[in-house]
Protein 1
Amino acid sequence: MRAPYVLSDASVVAWRNIIKIKRVPDLLVFTTLSPIMFVLLFAYVFGGAIGQNGNAQEYREFLMAGIFAQTVIFGATITGAGLAEDVKKGVIDRFRSLPMAPSAVLTGRTLSDVINNVIVLVVMSLTGLIVGWRIRDGFWNAAAGYLLLIVFAYAVSWIMAWIGMLVPSPEVVNNASFIVIFPLTFIAVTFVPLDTLPGPLQSIAEWNPVSSATQASRELFGNIPAGTPEPTAWPLQHAALYTLIWTVVILLIFVPLANLQYRRSTSR
């Protein structure tokens, strides 16, 4: 099927999921209130604690890129949970019976979650500005930082799409994703400098793509604290490139896997 038809069908599916955000209160709360809570909690709980011996304002600026990265990656789980629910209810079977591009369902689903992440980042950024966070390296660099986070989260959403096609229910997706994503986002430079981690965890954090996504956006926002030592590991020295490499690899692997599983899935 030609690309224009795929994009047209995908846009219809994406619009369906965007409307669902407005109509389902739980999703609306996650999209708006949850990001605000994360920013305020981390800024004043962690920032206040570190501010006793250091610069709380400086830490809040250091922190924001990490919160952005964690939140958009957790936001990708909406893809898996939504698809698992559609499979469970037989919606996927109905989609497959329609004269539409097979790849449009997953493409539309993941694109709608890009829009969700954009909303989340806007809300978090406004809240960050209220608590004292500032972009210090120009508009275009900041735009590149946001774009990098969104593109990386989009790749992660395809992993979640594949999982959503495999597991029996949305609850399993949420639980399994939390077990994997939670340590992945904390064994990284999201919330603390690399040199504060124990030796073995430092090595993991250096090669963790969440670290590189955070480091790259932090650099592009101009939020690297003064006096921070230069990273010695290649992934953090070339954080944007390393993140893009991971993005391409994930898409090359999981876009075909998710579409293959879509064709195999049946209602549960």
Note: The chain has a mean pLDDT of 84.
Protein 2
Amino acid sequence: MTGAAIMLIGLLTEALIGWPRPLFRAIGHPVTWIGKVIDLLDDWMNVEDADMGPRRTAGVIAALAVIAFCAELAVIITWLLPDSWVGVVIAGILAWPFIASRSLYNHVAAVARPLAAGDIAAARAAVSMIVGRDPNQLDEAGIARAALESLAENTSDGVVAPLFWGAIFGLPGIVGYKAINTLDSMIGHRTPRHEAFGWASARIDDIANLIPARLTGLLFAAVSGRFATAFAVMRRDAGNHRSPNAGWPEAAMAASLGVRLSGPRVYHDRVADEPWINGGAPDPGPEALHQGLRLYRKSMLALAAVLALLAATALI
């Protein structure tokens, strides 16, 4: 229950002020610090001339080392905090940068505004900041789909999952999870350099997001007013996604808004012929993107209420 209180403080702090630019310019961001450690290990341990087996083993060691280092540092900090509500508040403030509720909203809203105004060029530029597909190949519907998919998936990865593990394990839980997620973001992709070295990072991230992704889908469904429909589409279509986890929040988002997501898309060097999620529905447009942001806001309020309820039990 103390973990829930810590996460509630972190969530509310991030929702109110995000990560201010002056602070970023002064000290960077804790996730970028983790990224620098990952870069160092990638340069040192990922030997391109080595065979795939040794590179995969090196990747396992690197991933476990980063996760253990980050989590253990958080454990030490937790031990040093006062064993009181003062310590809980400090821990919540320390958890704040590992939650991305406000920044996620801002990034998607930056796509929604020009898209609604008919400025496709500006919408493409904004969506290129949050997805890897080629923005020049996206029409209005493609931009809206990409932004909604990013909103759904990153609600799980950037908000629900860190809060979930933080509520269970406190500050070490959220920091350890963020190390896992950052590893996957940086070296977990199937590129020639990281096919073997990033294998462990991708698999660990899949496991860490197994429960949170499904909880995110249920959260979207619960606040949508269309729970039965969203739940049915999740069960039917979540497995259509190439990711074992991302299909759950995306399917719930698609069904809640009455649109289709995923489907074929163009990356810079290839075409990914992905199946549709909620394929019988129409393509989303600017209004669906605004509706998705409203659904996201409702979800964040519901999530804060759940954390507050859990935290309140510590006072009983």
Note: The chain has a mean pLDDT of 94.
Protein 3
Amino acid sequence: MKTSQAHLFIIDPQNDFCDLPGAALPVAGAQADLERLARFIRTAGPALARISLTLDTHQPLDIAHPGCWQQADGSPAAPFTQIHAADLAEGRYRPVAPLSPERARAYLEALEAGGRYTHMIWPVHCVAGSWGQQINAPLAAALADWQQQTGHTPFEVIKGTHPWTEHYSAIQAEVPDPAAPETLPNTALLARFAGSGPILVAGEASSHCVKASIEHLAAHLGAEARRLVLLTDCMSPVAGFEAAAADFIHHMQSLGAQALSAQAALALLAED
């Protein structure tokens, strides 16, 4: 594996996911993860030939936000509520206009048929243009210095703007909509991984957006999934989903991917 073509893939390194005051959806350990990642970028410098990063970006009105759902008594659905298609059919929850019952039912059924996630109501987060949607400051500074040092620009992917499907993965939405190109496979992003050396992965959260993105990427890479290197101390899971994150890492290792600390990854980059 030619480490001289190393590609760093950073998933959703945003304030709203950091354990900081004012964060909408803090992940325990995320701030330390991203500060560690910033130090990794500064140390690796030009050894990182490419950097790609994703930004979760929503409007307040979103199928995964509380404003789109009510309980049977008319009260709002609380954050961290899971909703199944059966809940809709049996009247325990109902969608709020403009999310129609037909669209909501079709979405929940398609999501469950995919077998990856149960629909979750999250706190309103990563609203376009907000502080929470921005890249965490220490990492943003390290990326700016890398750009100045190398003359390269990080490739940014905005995901999650379509309000009627969850978009954990940077590759495609959980339930793609043929009429909404932003939900379909991101061919420009996938093309970035062709011909690179190791693909170093970091970001938040390892139980959701990192997991979803890298599962899709590994399926695209096929046997080349062995190029994946998970920086395990630069990602953390959402509380209560630690087992999902651990299963994800074990599955990637079964495909030939490596799971390394940031320090061990620096040693890997120094091998060339």
Note: The first strand starts at residue 6 and ends at 11.
Protein 4
Amino acid sequence: MNQLSTPRIVSMIAALTRHRDISLLESSLLKTVADLFAPNWAAIFHIGDDDVPAFSTSLREGIVSQTDFPEPFSELFGTEGVTSFPIMSHAQKVLGYLLVYRRPQLSGEEETLMTELFRVYDNYLSVLRDSQVDRLTGLLNRSTFDDQLDRALGLIRASYQEHAGERSKRKVGEGAGSFFMGEIDIDHFKNVNDRFGHLHGDEVLMILARILQSTFRKTDLIYRFGGEEFVVIVYVDDRGDAEMTFERLRISIENHVFPQVGKVTVSIGITEVRDTSFPVELLGHADQALYYAKTHGRNRVAFYEALLANGEIEAYQRTPKT
């Protein structure tokens, strides 16, 4: 490790905490680690619902990447040359791990410096999570949608192109791909709260969030917009693939047995995301399709562009501000 002056360390901390986005914060952390310790590689793993650390982001040869490691966390953790640092929440819950590999391994002095840096990182991460993540479901919240949409779509596009041709939870080909946004609303959710109480209603929301996370890839964006409404942005080959993906979600929810409540269904409105799209326009399109699904039997998927082409709805008109 190079000898660092106090102003240099303060400058690094300032650079680390200038971001207002969790994924950018992770990239900044990895680059700070590279500047401080020149490791062979460094990687961040997140703790999933199954308590198994899952790969998130890595840095090799100065390049931050979301390409999965060939080795699982269990093989990397504790390997000679690898130093691990737990990522903690304010409640002292382990959220994940940073693994740093270097030969020679980090010295005691370097580990101490990294631990102190992590205290700053953990505190700042907790602040960001409180502002960006819905506390009940753990999904992104509504306030992040407008702020992060453009950047997030860029990250999804890069990840999709990086993994083109590889198999994943969905069959993804090597085409250019397109973004689609789905607005998901639980049918008759007020009846659930009225009949079973808000505690069971909250349980339905948490279970549905887990179904969403298991249905979509980690590079897809899943938001809870409040109440019983969710929004998902996916990157797939074409409209048919998008419709199939959201239809599979609808069926998974319909077939799931929710404790106490039993059967729950959702209606879904989908629209294509274009380079010229604005968030309010996207929501308007998806909302029109969702309204159509709600008023035509519920428990179904409706596509804005298809409804428009068939003359079943009128084109969305953005209401001008007065």
Note: The two ends are 59 Å apart (CA to CA).
